[in-house]
């Protein structure tokens, strides 16, 4: 039988999965940026950075629309200030 | 300026409180080789740094140290949640508790408050980059020592991540030194 990912109906699980993905992108981008800081003429690294950056931006826009803002520039809900809504990162959620 | 991102750089999810462990790990918040001193060292060295490549590394590594500061804060906070007076006394956490309750205060494991006396901004690019290479190794040793004293995988996992970052930062500062 073919293995299938069970589609989750749990919003919290979806949110944490998506945050996990964003965190992976951010780690790769930050690591590449530090490398580029000391190797600014490395075209391979710059190409990798550009690819990740575009994918990351799509993911973040989607996350902020669906769940909650990641920065104060990401409060997409025009009738509600979701920025202060917990749990906050140190509380074990993300 | 800086913008806050509402997430940890690497997740911290600790199930079992352990105030004795918190007392040790807090040293990476406000101790001599802690993340706060690392951030202050690099961000303040930038002004007298003449090279663009080094200004970039100091800015970005200094900023990442602030993210590490938050991870250590999260670890200390989660290790000291829901404590009973008996647990506080048994763990030897009472001396900290009487001054700070379970607030997260930047201090060394030995109890002295965070101080810039343990970092240097010399204003000389070679000296400052060498200072940073040593600083990354001192932080790496501190994380090694923390790992020697811990056995909870929930705690060791983020500590191992932080330890590895010291090695990457050492590498980047070393490249700065070579391509001068």
Descriptors for this entry?
heterodimer; A: 94 residues; mainly alpha; 2 helices; 55% helix; elongated; B: 180 residues; Ferritin; 8 helices; 63% helix
The fraction of residues in strands of chain A falls at under 5%
| CATH superfamily placement of chain B | Ferritin, core subunit, four-helix bundle
Give the overall shape of chain A: elongated
Average pLDDT figure of chain A: 91
* Helix content estimate of chain A: 55-70%
| Backbone structural class of chain A | mainly alpha
Largest interface, per-chain counts?
Answer: A-B, 26 and 29 residues
Oligomer: heterodimer
Distance between the termini of chain A: 34 Å
**How many strands in all of chain A?**
0
Low-confidence stretches of chain A: none
Structural class call of chain B reads mainly alpha
Instruction: From the 3D structure, determine the CATH topology of chain B.
Output: Ferritin
Helical content band of chain B: 55-70%
Main sheet makeup of chain A: none
Q: What's the gyration radius of chain A in Å?
A: 16 Å
Structure, described:
The complex is a heterodimer of chains A (94) and B (180). With 94 residues, chain A is mainly alpha-helical. Chain A has a domain at 13-72. Helices cover 55% and strands 0% of the residues of chain A. Chain A has two helices and no strands. Chain A has helices at 11-38, 43-66. In chain A, helix 1 (11-38) packs antiparallel against helix 2 (43-66). By secondary structure, chain B is an all-alpha fold. Chain B has one domain (19-103, 118-178): Up-down Bundle (Ferritin), CATH 1.20.1260. Chain B contains eight helices and no strands. Chain B has helices spanning 19-25, 27-30, 35-45, 52-79, 85-90, 94-100, 125-149, 153-178. Chain B is elongated. Chain B starts with 18 loop residues before the first helix and ends with a helix. The A-B interface holds A 19, 22-23, 26-27, 30-31, 33-35, 37-40, 68-73, 83, 88-90, 92, 94 and B 3-14, 53, 56-57, 60-61, 64, 70, 73-74, 77-78, 168-169, 172, 175-176, 179.
